Amino acid sequence: MENLDVLVLRTLRDWRQAGRRALLATVVRTWGSSPRPVGSIMALAEDGAVVGSVSGGCIEDDLIYRYTRAYAGQGEAKAIPSGPPEFVKYGVTADEAHRFGLPCGGTLELLLEYDPDPAALAELVRRLEAGELVRRTVRLADGQVTLETALTPSELALDEARMANTFGPEYRMLLIGAGQLAEYLATMALFSGFAVTVCDPREEYRGGFHVPGATLVSDMPDDVVRAFRPDRRSCVVALTHDPKLDDLALLEALGTEAFYVGAIGSRRNNDARRRRMIEHFGQTEASLARLRGPIGIYIGSKTPPEIAVSVMAEILAVKNGVPLPRDMDVAEAKNQRQIAASDDPVACALPQP
């Protein structure tokens, strides 16, 4: 699955270029708990087609009912209006919050843009597909849109005159190794909105890799990392357990702005990798501080799909800026389990995992 914002904007562009009336809804304010964060977008066509989301579904249904021909002849259904953007608020009262499926105390406000300019949408999509980070500013008086390149991601900004929302290119994942774990992790990354590239020079592994939507390449991993050019919306994960493939790729990745760089392996393998990099590649503990390993969060995972869930959960937490408790760190959790077992005379007599 591609980046959701790009999908929404591309679909809205196609509707408008085909002459279809449509609106763009943006979550601009929330109070209390809300199902979708500020900046979330959805597009609604005149026939009731919807792409994207601003809630769990009930608000989308209300917008369809209000503004499209999908419920023509029922109640107060009407066509999408014309004119400048308008604000609409949901969940003001407890009864309304319950009606629209909002959490207790939750309220959200949307900005509705009617019939956005197809040329401006086409330019925005073109720039996003080219890998740009773009700030889209809407003048509230008349809906006029301006686009400018953004240097850093930023939160939605709203004042009495304008709304500005920053859209970025897809998050990307580069996996080193095309084994079974890579298949599960690539699949999870794709439905989480990442563009996925898998690198493995070993023909026997590439031949067995089948994940529609993922790009499979055969060059040496360190060359692929350089060509991939990881940025702040990229992660690099080594999965081969082979130092000849993993180490140089990881070193290349550590020299980039990738938000996550990590490698699969046990605590012992992780320690050995760090020693190799320090002894043979001139690294220091400081230069390796960003290298994650053993990767994932501790959920007692043993099978490839469970390990993939663990790794994907950690990647998403880092992407979303969520600090993880120490007891969810794989190495910390296993160390604590060993300490607990060493205090138990019966457990001490049992083989350790």
Automatic annotation (TrEMBL):
Residues in coiled coil: none
Pfam families, sorted: XdhC_C (PF13478), XdhC_CoxI (PF02625)
Domain XdhC Rossmann: 173-315
Top-rank taxon, per record: Bacteria
Domain XdhC- CoxI residues, every copy: 15-72
PANTHER family with a match to the protein in the record: ALDEHYDE OXIDOREDUCTASE MOLYBDENUM COFACTOR ASSEMBLY PROTEIN, MOLYBDENUM COFACTOR INSERTION CHAPERONE PAOD
Protein name listed in UniProt: Cytochrome oxidase I
